[in-house]
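Summary of Year 1 activities. Much of the first year was spent building the evaluation harness for sequence design. The harness presents a backbone, in tokenized form, and records the residue chosen at every position. We chose the following record to illustrate the format because it has been used consistently in internal testing since the harness was completed.
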């Protein structure tokens, strides 16, 4: 189970709206000067994700919850998203190269196969996202932000 903490934005009728902050580890890596991932992280302005998760327990805005998702579903979705366009690209490019015998045909086939693989992954992922075992679940709930209060009592003698 892969775990991550999120903050409750709203809760209504058994559905919690959560905000997960994106954590980039680029500031702690020794090779950050020559890393391409650091540049890619700087391109996107998005520093959090909003998602909706079922929760029977009433939650308060600002409350922290621990989310979990099964490793199998995460690996399966990553394989689907990355491998379908790649397999489509190679298969259709090889097919067009064999049928038409030119590099231009192979290029067009690669383009069609990549786009077709992407569209296939998009269609399959929308069906898989409805499965219960592919959904994130709330594992634990922290105290609401107003539940803990610290008071400092100063005695008359100043201690």
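For this record, the design step produced the sequence shown next.
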């Amino acid at each position: 189970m892969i775990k991550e903490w999120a903050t409750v934005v709203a809760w209504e009728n058994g559905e919690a709206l959560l905000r997960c902050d994106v954590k980039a580890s680029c500031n702690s890596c020794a090779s950050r000067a020559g890393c391409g991932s650091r540049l890619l992280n700087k391109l996107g302005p998005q520093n959090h994700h909003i998602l909706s998760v079922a929760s029977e327990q009433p939650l308060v805005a600002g409350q922290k919850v621990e989310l979990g998702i099964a490793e199998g579903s995460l690996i399966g979705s990553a394989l689907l998203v990355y491998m379908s366009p790649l397999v489509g690209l190679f298969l259709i490019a090889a097919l067009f190269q064999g049928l038409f015998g030119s590099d231009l045909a192979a290029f067009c086939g690669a383009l069609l196969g990549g786009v077709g693989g992407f569209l296939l992954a998009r269609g399959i992922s929308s069906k898989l996202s409805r499965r219960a075992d592919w959904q994130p679940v709330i594992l634990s709930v922290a105290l609401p932000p107003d539940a803990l209060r610290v008071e400092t009592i100063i005695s008359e003698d100043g201690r």
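The mean pLDDT is 84. Quantitative recovery figures across the full test set are reported in Table 2.
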